[in-house]
Specification:
By secondary structure, the chain is α+β, with helices and mostly antiparallel strands. Helices cover 26% and strands 36% of the residues. The radius of gyration is 21 Å and the shape is globular. It holds the Pfam family DUF4880.
């Protein structure tokens, strides 16, 4: 069994424990079996921590009693802890599988998988588990492909917004190609949002290398740390300077909410369109710059859109097979 194959098996075991612990009230025997599994290897603990961490970010472990005394003691060396997880939290996390999310798991070893294509649906967020144990969450519609090639984990992103929680593997860097840019990581958490004209990279944990690949210019590269964000256009040029951003505000969509504070209407509509089967376009540049402050759940987008149109005296117009947002005349 290869290293990658073994890691995939461990990740699958961690998810299986999450499901098993939600089925019934955990018995003493079940707790003992879980303690035995999680203390067998540090890889077991880390795999379980990654699953718990992502599901917490999805908002399914909030406001639950902590029963951390049930978990085995931390080893002496510093490692990521189970922390806030609890038996009740574990049970709630498994609701992810029945709440309209798509869990895709590929059982082939990471060094033997062929090119895989992914298209995620509108109306909801979709979680995807790659063969190396990395987790992606798509905000509504997204398109991307994945392949293990030349000792690298390679992902080509065509559209959408993706949150990445990359499995740590220094021997096999994770390389993302998208719209004239290349992002390289070993193991960290970050978000890429790809629009019609630009790419936005936001780093939530660790460090990420960004290279802008305009073939007419020398390669432009920089290293981003947690809490930093950078824009690049689709021609492969960096846009502006590195800027700080609010990580919590940026990830509200992982909890099923869309929140905007003085955000240009063009950016708001770009994100809303990921959750719609029929996109809404803006032809007026002044209207595109209109600043919007609002918030809604993902399942309330239509109601929020109605309120936005009313508040700003806007209307939707059908033109040549398109839906365009315009100022009411």
């Amino acid at each position: 069994m290869t290293v990658q194959d073994n890691q995939v098996a461990i990740e699958a075991q961690a998810r299986a424990w999450l499901v098993k612990l939600m089925e019934d009230t955990p018995t003493a025997q079940l707790k003992a079996e879980f303690s035995q599994w999680i203390t067998q290897s540090e890889k077991h603990r880390q795999a379980f921590v990654r699953s718990e961490k992502l599901w917490r970010q999805l908002g399914l472990l909030d406001n639950l009693a902590e029963l951390t005394d049930m978990l085995p003691a931390q080893p002496k060396r510093a490692v990521p802890g189970i922390g806030m997880s609890s038996w009740l939290g574990i049970a709630a996390a498994a609701l992810l599988m029945v709440a309209g999310w798509n869990w895709q798991h590929h059982n082939l070893p990471a060094d033997t998988i062929a090119l895989q294509h992914f298209t995620t649906p509108a109306h909801t967020n979709t979680e995807v588990l790659l063969a190396d144990g990395s987790r992606l969450v798509a905000a509504g519609q997204a398109k991307f492909s994945y392949k293990f090639e030349n000792n690298q984990r390679r992902l080509a992103m065509q559209s959408g917004t993706l949150y990445f929680d990359i499995a740590h593997d220094t021997a096999h860097p994770f390389v993302i190609s998208s719209a004239g840019s290349r992002i390289t990581v070993v193991g960290t958490a970050f978000e890429i949002s790809l629009g019609d004209r630009q790419l936005r990279l936001s780093v939530h944990e660790g460090r990420v290398q960004l290279a802008a690949l305009n073939t007419d210019q020398p390669e432009q590269g920089l290293m981003l740390s947690a809490g930093q964000q950078q824009l690049a256009d689709t021609d492969g040029n960096l846009m502006g300077e590195v800027r700080e951003f609010d990580s919590g505000q940026s990830l509200t969509w992982l909890q099923g909410r869309l929140s905007y504070d003085g955000t240009p209407l063009s950016e708001v509509m770009q994100e809303l369109n990921r959750y719609r089967t029929t996109p809404i376009e803006i032809d007026d540049s002044q209207l595109a710059a209109l600043q919007i402050t609002t918030s809604c759940r993902i399942d309330q987008i239509d109601q929020m859109l109605e309120g936005l149109l009313l508040a700003h005296d806007l209307t939707l117009v059908a033109e040549s097979g398109r839906t365009v947002i315009q100022q009411t005349e």
